[in-house]
């Protein structure tokens, strides 16, 4: 893609956000669109696939603070109209700027403007090697997976299907049909830039014949169209470590987009979503469990059998235990790879029967009469008495 094409793109519009959107808003918009447009969710839909690529390209720039800053600076220089034939700006004739670093109209002499373009498009001053000829690390890729609560606690191995750019198997990344190879662009001599003069001004701009890469392909690969990269669906087996938490990201080194010109591939980040358990909860490394008990069990004491994620355990409730008490079962929580082990925290919750038969009602009335002298609310009683006397 040439500088002209790159700057003319409105990446903010692609993601549906304003130009002053924060990093979190940009990430949220990208993740929403990526889920909706992902090829796995739209099999055979070429329009969705094209939009998915556009959204990924936009996030590749706006999701990187340095690239976003350079992108914003370039668009502010060129105005909303972007590149114009014969120069830049929205005026009829436009302004002509010095791409190669020579002094020129607009105050960008001394290399400021060309240095900005160098940052944006990976090019140095005129006469230097272009980014298309230099190795470039592949972009990082992010995907999502959902696992259940037990898998998150104990760890799991899950298959993951990805539709993402990958090195073309036919041309092995060269972009040329097997048996042929790319050639040095005769127009720019492999530099990726061409220069021209107009009056007192000198111009250097991306070569249109090689699109700034410094190479031309006479016989493109039939499978990738000369890009060296094609979108493929692949299946990975991902090991989810024990103790992973909801919304946590797992990094798989070298499983992202392939690098260019022999450079290393990017990384794959797997964001894990955990389905809540109907009985257990989690607080860090500890598991939580609420166990219903009766009042007699608390007052008289009892032994409860409570579940864990392994085998049930017995839990002793001493006489006179108060409702809401939390009992700890050590070593029955989350066991992480670093050896840290959590506990199972059991909260005792008193249940009240919705109805009583005559025998139960008589027994409770007798209990109430026998304990009539016990005031369960001494502090509140004292406050009420003090209020009456004042």
UniProtKB/TrEMBL annotation:
InterPro entries: DnaJ, DnaJ_C, DnaJ_domain, HSP40/DnaJ_pept-bd, HSP_DnaJ_Cys-rich_dom, HSP_DnaJ_Cys-rich_dom_sf, J_dom_sf. It comes from Actinokineospora alba. GO terms for biological process: DNA replication; protein refolding; response to heat. GO terms for cellular component: cytoplasm. This is Chaperone protein DnaJ. Participates actively in the response to hyperosmotic and heat shock by preventing the aggregation of stress-denatured proteins and by disaggregating proteins, also in an autonomous, DnaK-independent fashion. Unfolded proteins bind initially to DnaJ; upon interaction with the DnaJ-bound protein, DnaK hydrolyzes its bound ATP, resulting in the formation of a stable complex. GrpE releases ADP from DnaK; ATP binding to DnaK triggers the release of the substrate protein, thus completing the reaction cycle. Homodimer. Zn(2+) 1 binds at residues 168, 171, 221, 224. Residues 155-233 form the CR-type domain. Keywords: Chaperone, Cytoplasm, DNA replication, Metal-binding, Repeat, Stress response, Zinc, Zinc-finger.
